[in-house]
Design a protein that fits this description.
Chain lengths: ~150, ~120
Amino acid sequence: MSDFQNEKSETGGDSGSGSTGSRSEPLESERGRTTIADGVVTKVAGISAAEVPGVHELGAGAARAVGAVTQKVGLMDSRTQGVSVEVGEAEAAVDLTVVIDYGESIPEVSEEIRQQVIKRVEGITGLRVVEVNISVNDLYFPGDDEPEDSRVA
Amino acid sequence: MDPHPPISSRIAIARFAEQAVAADTGVSPTEGGGRWLTRDGERTIPGIVATASGDGRVEVGLHLIAHLPPRPLEQQVENLRSEILASARQARLAEGLGRIDVTIHDLREADEGGGVA
């Protein structure tokens, strides 16, 4: 199945798209600097994207298969699958790969993911989200997880 | 031997930071394999680096793991700074307290541990 690549979303501080406000300075006050690791932003983005109705799961096919194994042996966190981020001093860009339930509107679900990720990442980390790029990698059909009946008794 | 020997303002401030972090259920200190700690006599204070700066004050570095569910981190961090400053004021050490830099290394369940790769 071919990917559905959404357009990049440039968000401004006063765009009304869930942004908590423009921030041009780093997370710094006169009392000290706050640094937020990439992994924190990755998890917030992954958790918030997975909350959106219509998102079946995150990650590309091969990554999901490998992830299922590595999660079982404790080597990988399901909350970071399908998410990559670039974090600067004051801004973050997020790339997501998702599987959407068949029948859902891909543009609507994608836009809701984008709004949710911006709202959560900006609200929790204080970083300004400048891009949320979404790649819809697959559709999930009910019954995909059920094993096929054996042809022999 | 004095069971409570006098401590430096650096160690006192490190202890205030330790208490502030321990009182906050939304964060825990990292267990960074010796990278981020302050030695306090026989014990170590994990996740907290208190260092004397050139101007005679003590700078504090907090190395933390935030807990799920995620909450606004800036507010949490400012609360920690306020707690440390309040303790330093009470001990008349506020003048000697410098910057409090905070690094959030990860976001985990509270019972997942504080190790950082």
